Automatic annotation (TrEMBL):
One of its GO terms (molecular function) is ATP binding. The keyword tRNA processing does not apply. It comes from Jatrophihabitans cynanchi. PROSITE patterns: ABC_TRANSPORTER_2 (PS50893). It comes from the Bacteria. Pfam families: ABC_tran, BCA_ABC_TP_C. Keywords: ATP-binding, Nucleotide-binding, Transport. This is ABC transporter ATP-binding protein. Residues 35-282 form the ABC transporter domain.
Length: 288
């Protein structure tokens, strides 16, 4: 069972997990395809950022998306989350072909992401940042909220409880009342993850979540991401740190200059000559 870093008064570790899990169908269809990229090409003017890229993300896995700078990793995220529309090719998520959905619609479909450069509401507290993410699911009408109907009170209270549970789950409940901008950098990264989890994603996309972390912080983050996977989430991870990627992911897709050059389990990727060459610029020179 999970061991949240900080418990909250009145909220046992089991209750934290219950809150984190409560609205989701977890562990359903593990191993089935959740998202499928089929020959996705994305051009910016004359530059081909993704060139006929195909791969699947399976339910319940941590998939690593790696490649040298400029390989197309973030563009891939952006195509999946509705920031850019592919020039050609198809992206299917949980049975829905992504076409002209707006970003909020993609969030409702069940895709959440964090950003390379942290994006939080700096003047809001940590708790408020998570509650805002939960709000999208609530059913109170605007008039209901204005006259503060019983349903509105109930939803407000359960949103706060669930946001606290999420903060406890990622290990930062002790700073729930602090403004986001006053949190240490590592806490801000965890807060982004809590906020993304608050949207109850079927797919959680993490863009370099360990950037700027020291080795001990990276180890803790690896533990958290494993825990997230073990709670039944599917995770897509962009990360440059090879130790973290190799130690954490179930499978890896490697991009180089917008092309997929390899796909497989970490041990296969580590020894793949094309991957070694992509990272070192020379073949077979001991990538590790
Ligand atoms: N909005 C844009 N307009 C023009 N070119 C872009 C845009 N976004 C990305 N690119 C280009 O597309 C290519 C792929 O960029 P992308 O950011 O996806 O790479 P990346 O693998 O995420 O790199 P990094 O590891 O450095 O973050 C790069 O050559 C980049 O300059």
């Amino acid at each position: 069972m999970t061991d949240p870093k900080h418990t909250v008064e009145g909220l046992s570790p089991d209750a934290v997990i219950e809150q984190v899990e409560q609205h989701r169908d977890i562990h359903t269809g593990v191993g089935e395809t959740l998202m499928s990229m089929q020959e996705v090409t994305l051009r910016f003017g004359g530059l081909t950022a993704l060139d006929s890229v195909s791969f699947d993300i399976k339910r319940g896995e941590i998939l690593g998306l790696i490649g040298p700078n400029g390989a197309g990793k973030t563009t891939c995220f952006n195509a999946m989350t509705g920031v850019y529309r592919p020039t050609s090719g198809t992206i299917t998520f949980d049975g829905t072909v992504l076409k002209r959905q707006r970003r909020y619609q993609i969030t409702r479909l069940g895709i959440a992401r964090t950003f390379q450069n942290i994006r939080l509401f700096a003047e809001m507290t940590a708790l408020e940042n998570v509650v805002v993410g939960l709000d999208a699911r609530h059913r109170t009408s605007v008039p209901g909220a204005l006259v503060r109907t019983p349903r509105h009170f109930h939803e407000e209270k359960s949103a706060v409880d669930q946001a606290m549970a999420l903060l406890a789950f990622v290990g930062i409940a002790d700073r729930a009342a602090d403004k986001a901008r006053n949190l240490p950098y590592g806490y801000q990264r965890r807060l982004e993850i809590a906020r993304a989890l608050g949207t109850e994603p079927k797919l959680l996309c993490l863009d370099e979540p360990a950037a700027g972390f020291n080795p001990a912080e990276k180890d803790e983050l690896m533990g958290l991401i494993r825990q997230i996977r073990d709670e039944g989430y599917t995770v897509l991870l962009i990360e440059h740190d090879m130790r973290l990627v190799m130690g954490l992911t179930d499978r890896i897709v490697v991009l180089e200059f917008g092309n997929k050059i390899a796909e497989g389990k970490p041990e296969q990727i580590r020894d793949d000559p094309a991957v070694v060459a992509a990272y070192l610029g020379v073949p077979d020179d001991g990538a590790a």
